[in-house]
Amino acid sequence: KKEQLELLSTVESVTKDGTHMRLSANISSVKELDMAVKYGALGVGLFRTEFLYMDRSTFPSEDEQFEVYRQVVQKMGGRSTVIRTLDIGGDKQLDYFPLPQEDNPFLGFRAIRISLERQELFQTQLTAILRASAYGKTKIMYPMISSVEEVRQANQILRRAMADLDARGIPYDADIPVGVMIEIPAAVVIADLLAEESDFFSIGTNDLVQYVLAVDRMNEQIAHMYHPYHPAILRMLRTIVEAARHAKIPVSVCGEMAGDERSIPLWLGLGVHDLSMSIQSLLRVKHRILNTTAAEAKSAAQQCYKLATSTEIEKLLTDFNESGR
Ligand code: PEP
Ligand code: MG
């Protein structure tokens, strides 16, 4: 089965009736790159940079970060790499950067909130990413955005990083696309406003589901309540996509939901053709896309929007998935 799937690595990801889906990889290290390329990823849709900061005793320097980002960007060649700025806090801690003990770390000092308070760390990372952008198609993505102010503040620091590189005579892509993760409910509700400030959206369903349903993604006791196929999530996906479409910016998905082949009808129904997932999911999802008729999938998606419960939606999508085998 695994060998059979591997034959699909070089096959284009397209439905039976000709709808193309772009499948990219989520990676957390340079090591994973070879696998991503081997399995035919068309880009890196999410590079989780926090792993560069973990398992060490000090913050990585600009040069150290640049070296890693450059390697990733270069290896992807013409395919694009979305580098997400530091997303620590929540469940991820650094030994050398003690964060205050918090009662609700997932509602606490995390991701862009840390970056905007420790601006020197943020600027160093942005500078390293900009330098890498001279070596291949690079995009910057901010995590945990909840307001327009955060995007503007982050962009201000980005401009500072650019000015610094200009002064040093170091090249970078001055038109580097800068996007935001949509993973906080407020970001969904103001997606139209955020779209005005962003070059692209990437939907982070892992956190979005946690925050929309108020279900801690790490808490096993309530894991049965963590429902990506909740009607509230489906409606939010629609809001995000409509806002992006209205502003004419691209939207992709990089949460685990993208790696669950049962979700394919939802993306086809919404007109989202850009998915990023863990490497282990790439070929499985591609196999499913190759065996899907987009027209049928779209009508399944329409049915989903008429259902009132997660159980019914999940069942419909599971049945649709199994009918195509
Ligand atoms: C997400 O929240 O969906 C996501 C892709 O980011 P992470 O899992 O790293 O929080
Ligand atoms: Mg997230």
Question: Care to give the gist of this entry?
Answer:
Helix content is 47%, strand content 11%.
Task: Note the main attributes of this structure.
binds magnesium ion; binds phosphoenolpyruvate; 15 helices; 325 residues; alpha/beta; 8-stranded parallel β-sheet; 11% strand
Overview of the molecule:
- There is one protein chain.
- The protein has helices spanning 2-6, 31-38, 50-53, 62-75, 112-117, 119-132, 148-168, 185-189, 191-197, 205-213, 231-247, 264-270, 279-290, 294-304, 310-323; strands at 22-27, 44-48, 81-84, 138-142, 178-182, 201-203, 251-253, 274-278.
- The protein is α/β, with parallel strands linked by helices and 325 residues long.
- Helix 6 (119-132) crosses helix 7 and helix 9 packs parallel to helix 11.
- Phosphoenolpyruvate binds at residues 46, 48, 87, 183, 204-207, 254-255.
Task: Give the % helix.
Answer: 40-55%
Following the backbone from N to C, one meets helices and strands in this order, namely HEHEHHEHHEHEHHEHHEHEHHH
Which ligands appear in the coordinates? phosphoenolpyruvate, magnesium ion
The secondary-structure class comes to alpha/beta
Major sheet details: 8 strands, parallel
Strand fraction = 5-15%
Taking the alpha carbons of the first and last residues, their distance comes to 14 Å
Overall geometry comes to: globular
Mean pLDDT: 96
Evaluate the radius of gyration.
Answer: 20 Å
Number of distinct beta strands = 8
Number of helices: 15
Poorly predicted sequence stretches spanning 5 or more consecutive residues: none
| Major β-sheet strand ordering | 7-6-5-4-3-2-1-8
